[in-house]
Write a structure and sequence with these properties.
It is built from 5 helices and 5 strands, in the order E-H-E-H-E-H-E-H-E-H. It has a single domain, classed as Rossmann fold, CATH 3.40.50.2300. It is 50% helix and 20% strand. Helix 1 packs parallel to helix 5 and helix 2 packs parallel to helix 3. The protein is globular. Strands 2-1-3-4-5 form a 5-stranded parallel sheet, with helices on both faces. The protein is of the alpha/beta class. The two termini are 18 Å apart.
């Protein structure tokens, strides 16, 4: 079974990296660069998957993304938020908002193949 994932990011270089890993793991990744794009992707994606949120380069304010993220993860989606290690304050903000498993971008990249293969954080 192929894992479905949505990446909320406006970072074109990082999007390319995630899509490369997705192709290698047979996962389907939809990219959302705005709140509207995320709403559309969620409506088309079904009942389960992986929602990956770039805390720095999401393309939308976290306050606007938070309700969609929480509603999606409460339906059984795996939620992962990631940030650059130089912006540690984002880790505290994301944890306080309940934005899934929060980790530095370097750890996220390391776990990405497993995340896109198994649909969960190892």
């Amino acid at each position: 079974m192929s894992v479905r994932a949505i990446l909320v990011s406006a970072d074109l270089m990082f999007i390319s990296k995630v899509k490369e890993v997705a192709a290698a793991t047979n996962a389907t990744v939809t990219v959302a660069r705005s709140v509207g794009a995320l709403e559309k992707a969620l409506n088309e994606s079904g009942d389960s998957g992986v929602l990956m949120l770039d805390l720095e380069k999401s393309g939308a304010p976290l306050d606007a993304l938070e309700p969609l993220f929480l509603a999606t993860t409460s339906r059984g989606w795996t939620g992962v938020s990631f940030f650059s290690h130089v912006h540690e304050e984002l880790e505290q903000i994301a944890n306080a908002k309940g934005l899934g498993v929060v980790m530095p971008r370097s750890r996220f990249v390391k776990l990405l193949p497993t995340l896109l293969t198994e649909g969960r954080v190892p």
